[in-house]
Amino acid sequence: MLKAVLAAAAVAAGLIEPLRAVAGEWNKAAFDAREIGLALKAADVANATASADLIIRAPEIAENGAQVPIEVVSKIPGTQILYLFVDKNPQPFVGSFEFLEGAEPFISTRIKMGETSNVRVVARAGSKVYVALREVKVTIGGCAA
Amino acid sequence: MAEPIRMRIKLEGDVADVRVLIGHPMETGLRKDPKTGELVPLHFIKTVVATLNGKPVMEAQWSQAVARNPYIQFRVKGAKAGDEIAISWVDNRGESNGAKSKVPPAS
Amino acid sequence: MGLARALCASALAAIALACIPAESATPEEDRKHLVELFQARFPGVPLDDYVYGAMIANPGAREQYEQIMEFPPFLEDIERGRRLWETPFRNGKHFADCFPHEGRNVAGDYPYFDPTLGTVVTFEMALNRCLRANGEAELRYGEAQGMGVLTAYARTLSDGMRMQIRVESPEAREKYDAGRALFFRRIGQLNASCAGCHAYYAGSIMRTEIISPALGHATHWPIFRGGEELMTFQGRFKRCMEQMRAVPFGYNSEEWNNLEYFLSYLSNGLPLKSSVFRK
């Protein structure tokens, strides 16, 4: 129902459809993947280039793995989508955020981490993908909390 | 009935800084109910859409690894006082909720 | 010199820079001893910061606390408490009618010693007295969704108020001393006392966690563990006694109410802030 309403609004706007096609439908294959390599492949963001312009702000040691504050900002021009992974989570793909119509490539959120792991962010700018990693230590795991 | 969505919007120049707290259990399916000992079933928000005056500005796809009562902060350029920011979500049970708020004048 | 003081001077002086003798001279002297002990151990930490517990020794933890507290995930729990507080009783009265200033800036006076009852009265007891006086059923102590969320809201009406517990009669002093004795008593299979960790080893690491100082303990309840699980002050006593492998006393027991009285006195002068994030 919501998608129909938004699709109608998007068509009326005449601008959104091509951008929405970049992210597509909820990526079940990527979300279901149980290993980071498979998740990256399913999200079509494998083989990304490391970039220092993709900045992750995360704690060194998470107070509680159930509520880990993560902030990402991309200084890469033309960033359309940010993908968030926790390499060692049972299902590494946490989510993607697509920016349209003037939204800045910036997101701050809180995630669950099951154990000490790299938090991995990928930025998509057109056909190019860039990656940054940040290790977050977890002593109280968040997945079964 | 879905839990509330709380929105806080600040206008900084022509950028609306939007902070949202969404009420949702975001169950991973791995947690045991302490009273029954049974696993609480998977129940999480799958898609989130934010709009500015009805036009999508941010679309997110989530897994159950986003925290309980999820928080998100995003920023939208080209906003002005009186504009409407709306946020909506759909979860894995097909349930949904939404909220909207007007951009206040820059303080 | 009493035996207790002698023991204190010898064995414990090696650990503590200022020693807290087993017998108390006055509550105010106890409090000052504790403040001196911690100010020597944590130089440069402002007194008001002791409400942040173990975070005074962990800037990364404090940063996450501030990030989460900016828009905490447990706001709906507090909101449920607000609805409980604001819903009129069947007789038309409200909780606010039972307290001065409609319940604003009162929590720092609790617990207090009631000479008529002959016991200390905690804030939760006062809430239940209000319910009883207005013909309503009392709430169960230690129950998160009832009394827990009610205090999660009601105590925030006193945020910023400085703790100001009074011990002003011999009878009140007896209750204070009973709480103090429990604080110093070794309990459980681990044979540990509250003082052993939260006075003498505050700031050290035990089982991967930094031990929080007793100063400031009473100021910040309930907490939301991991931002999600509501825990009251006495709920923490329960968990801690269980962790020391001791059989816990019960919610609203005299032992715990007296301990709360003692611990709250120790935090006199510190600012209250309720419903906060903890790991």
Report on this model:
The complex is a heterotrimer of chains A (145), B (107) and C (279). Helix content of chain A is 22%, strand content 37%. Chain A is α+β, with helices and mostly antiparallel strands and 145 residues long. Chain A has one domain: Sandwich (Immunoglobulin-like). In chain A, a hairpin with a 2-residue loop joins strand 8 (117-125) and strand 9. The longest helix of chain A is centred in the N-terminal third of the chain and has 12 residues, at 2-13. Chain A is globular, with a radius of gyration of 16 Å. Residues 7-21 of chain A have low confidence and may be disordered. With 107 residues, chain B is mainly β. In chain B, 0% of the residues lie in helices and 50% in strands. Chain B is built from no helices and seven strands. Chain B is elongated and about 50 Å long. Chain B starts with a strand and ends in a 5-residue tail after the last strand. Chain C has 279 residues and is mainly alpha-helical. Chains in contact: A-B, A-C, B-C. The interface between A and B is large, with 45 and 39 residues.
